[in-house]
Amino acid sequence: MKWTIRSLIKTTTDFLREKVIEEPRLTTELLLAHALDMKRVSLYLSFDKPIRKDELSRFRTLVRRRLAHEPVQYIIGNTGFMGLDIGTRKEVFIPRQETEILASIVKLWIESNDLDTFVLYDIGTGTGAIALFFAHSFSNVKVYVSDISERALECARENAKNLSVEARITFIAGNLLEPFKKAQKANIIVSNPPYIPSADIQNLPEIVKREPHEALDGGEDGLFFIGEIIKEAKEYLKPEGLLALEIGNNQSEQVKELFSKEKVYENITIVPDLRGIKRVVTAILFSYL
């Protein structure tokens, strides 16, 4: 059979749908564009293009990898985040659409406070997506990022170089806020920490289990790292600084209590994502500290 882009997309989409692969059409298009070394939008301008045997072979190899529960982002080596092309690699947590809510809220806070220059920490940076967005969006920012994974920091550094923002970001290996002891105090601390309860990890979809365990496991109740950040952040934030955290489903009230327990935060705010899940908690450090 002679394949064209049109016929291959239709047949593969139907096949992936039968195999209960999420977003079968999008998955097909992303993998085919990668196999053909084309932009995804270019597929629509070339529907009648014949597919060569070597191209078909490459595409089928990519499809088999997806059927084996490998994330598309690992297969093609990139993903989108806040309009940026972010490089991905195995053993590094993949940025999620939900985290764009976190980034958007922090951006609005920066703009509403009309900051001249400011310092931002990104804890557990992974691919660097959050830090990269702010370094790319604001020329007046100094960003410090941390991660316990050297592989993640390598990925983040490469992304910063590709986006020409490496001069605005300092990368430091280490756990939580400990790497920032010698850094300037922050106007903003942001993090998407591990927040899945340990017992729930085994029930995650197989595709999620391909991502690094340490980026998922939030301890017995999922709140270990969130609680540690809330406790430690007061020593690193400037007065009236912002702490913004992504959290898991049904954790908002417990997280709000963790903030209140410290007695140094005000304006504790919970923000839902597009599905209505309470996804982000923000708070301001008291001005007199």
The main sheet orders its strands as 5-4-3-6-7-9-8
Total tally of structural domains: 2
Please summarize the sheet with the most strands. 7 strands, mixed
Strand % is 15-25%
**Helix proportion range:** 25-40%
Average pLDDT confidence is 95
Secondary-structure map:
Layout: H1 5-18, H2 24-36, H3 40-44, H4 53-67, H5 72-76, E1 78-81, E2 84-87, H6 99-113, E3 118-123, H7 129-137, E4 141-147, H8 150-162, E5 169-173, E6 186-191, H9 206-209, H10 224-233, E7 237-246, H11 252-262, E8 265-272, E9 278-285
Helix pairs in contact: 1-2, 2-4, 10-11
Descriptive notes:
The protein is an alpha/beta fold. It has two domains: 5-68, Orthogonal Bundle (Helicase, Ruva Protein, domain 3), CATH 1.10.8; 79-87 and 90-285, Vaccinia Virus protein VP39 (Rossmann fold), CATH 3.40.50. Helix content is 39%, strand content 20%. It has eleven helices and nine strands. It has helices at 5-18, 24-36, 40-44, 53-67, 72-76, 99-113, 129-137, 150-162, 206-209, 224-233, 252-262, and strands at residues 78-81, 84-87, 118-123, 141-147, 169-173, 186-191, 237-246, 265-272, 278-285. The strands form two sheets. Strands 5-4-3-6-7-9-8 form a seven-stranded mixed β-sheet, sandwiched between helices. A two-stranded antiparallel ribbon has the order 1-2. The protein is elongated.
